[in-house]
Amino acid sequence: MSNFSFPGQTAFYKGKVRDVYTIDDDRLVMIASDRISAFDVILPRPIPYKGQVLNQIAAFMLNATRDICNNWLQQVPAPNASIGVKCIPFKIEMVVRGHLTGHAWRTYASGKRELCGVALPEGMQENEAFPTPIITPSTKADEGHDEDISKEAIIAQELATETEWSELERLALALFARGQELAARQGLILVDTKYEFGKKDGAIILMDEIHTPDSSRYFYADGFKERLAAGERQQQLSKEFVREWLIANDFMGKEGQTVPEMSDEWIGTISDRYIELYEKVIGAPFKPEPVSDEELYNRIAAALAS
After folding, report:
1. At what angle do helices 264-282 and 240-248 cross, to 10 degrees?
2. Which domains does the chain have, with CATH numbers?
């Protein structure tokens, strides 16, 4: 994908998987690339249609939650591009967990019973649902890894005021509840996810992508209880399978480790899994829409002009 130069462009940022263009200091063009990252490393080969999958799931979910919270999205001029308002971001990620899995489970299994200042109940097993969803925020690092942080530390470090925190907490839990409803309709369980918020003209705005496989974890509802009772691994929809493949090939992003070779067959498998994910989460067939760089530029420029 080219680095474009749009009319009125005032800044450009190349993220791990997205390219973000600032227009007139008050709008953003976000292009979801086919790059894929794991362990904070961009893997060497792109995944066909991954950008379209992520962008279209995010647009669907942002539109399905607009009644709960205003969000940044204004237009989707191309399958892998979105245009919206620029906000001043809170430097925190609101991580909402409905189940004891992933990082929370690893913390729990190590014997700790607190995560980000939140007490974890005794006697839980991996993947079990919490009595009610919990929020375990992390700092939004400009560089390096995000780090766990408590509500108290967020307020003490002035990353949000107490009033802002209360509203962020309310919105995150309401969005998660809606995400769980949408997932349940598709025979899925929304296990955990993250939300990012910002402010625009004094109002709190939901930013970024939501409920996508890159920001969320889904389990299949069918057989969930049986697998839990048997202590078996859950069948899940997320990019966790890519991380597992890397770990199995001795790569976890650590110094001196080399990314294993990605064959054409494996690239095709990852692409197919992302498409399966789209169809399962949205409940509609995926329509691949390849767009050349020239067409992508023209569509975005026309949308900005309008």
Report:
1. 150
2. 9-88+242-305 (3.30.200.20), 90-201+214-237 (3.30.470.20)
d(CA 163, CA 220): 37
Per-residue pLDDT of the chain (306 residues; tens, 9 = 90+): 668 999 999 999 998 899 999 999 999 999 999 999 988 889 999 999 999 999 999 999 999 999 999 999 999 999 999 999 999 999 999 999 999 998 999 999 999 999 999 999 999 999 999 999 999 999 976 665 679 999 999 999 999 999 999 999 999 999 999 999 999 999 999 999 999 999 999 999 999 999 998 899 999 999 999 999 999 999 988 888 898 899 899 998 888 999 999 999 999 999 999 999 999 999 999 999 999 999 999 999 999 998
Q: What span, in angstroms and rounded, lies between the C-alpha atoms of 33 and 80?
A: 7
Q: How many CB atoms lie within 10 A of CB 280?
A: 16
